[in-house]
Design a protein that fits this description.
Blueprint (H helix, E strand, L loop, with lengths): L4 E4 L9 H9 L5 E7 L11 H10 L3 E7 L7 H6 L4 E5 L6 H10 L3 E6 L17 E5 L14 H15 L4 E5 L7 H7 L3 E4 L1 H4 L4 H12 L3
Parallel strand pairs: 1-8, 2-3, 3-4, 4-5, 5-6, 6-7, 7-8
Amino acid sequence: MSTTLIAPSILAADFANLQRDIELVNNSEADWFHLDVMDGVFVPNISFGMPVIKSIAKHANKTLDVHLMIVEPDRYIKTFADLGVNVLTVHYEACTHLHRTLQAIKAEGMQAGVALNPHTNVDLLRDTINDIDLVCMMSVNPGFGGQSFIENTYDKVKQLKALINQKGASTKIEIDGGVTNKNAKQLVDAGADVLVAGSYVFGANDPSQTIKDLKALLSYC
């Protein structure tokens, strides 16, 4: 039986009916809420900030997985901890002192994640992998939902899995971008532990059934 986690991306939810969509995820077979925070500087888009996350946290009863696509993430670590975030992910490309940032996240009682852009080599995490709880591998260019999946992701997942095993780390691998029922099984076979699905879930006629079907598909991996 697969232990693959499904994390619907709230960026793809209906913001005019946000509480409805939060409850939908609460009542579904999904495992986590995935929240993308964008600043318009690190990525060419702006998503949502602290007030929206505070509102989501008030209604969500599952793990809050926050992905910071922002510059200077260290400035906000304590703020996100105070909001009740469980997993806080920063971009490798945005951190001058990655090890220090990871320690600061853990000091606030959160799990520490590192996101990699599609062009960033997984070997750059060799020295910090034992301090990382989650690697969020971008399988699209960060900044916008609904993009096409980058095929090279499978090889990168395998490389990262080999590094994790080599170092004896317990790091989870998360895939973010373009995940559907067409590539989910192949991603899990390559070594993925968490699948973020945005447009695929919230763009479906029945999001809850879509999540259930994805879970069923992965139960044989």
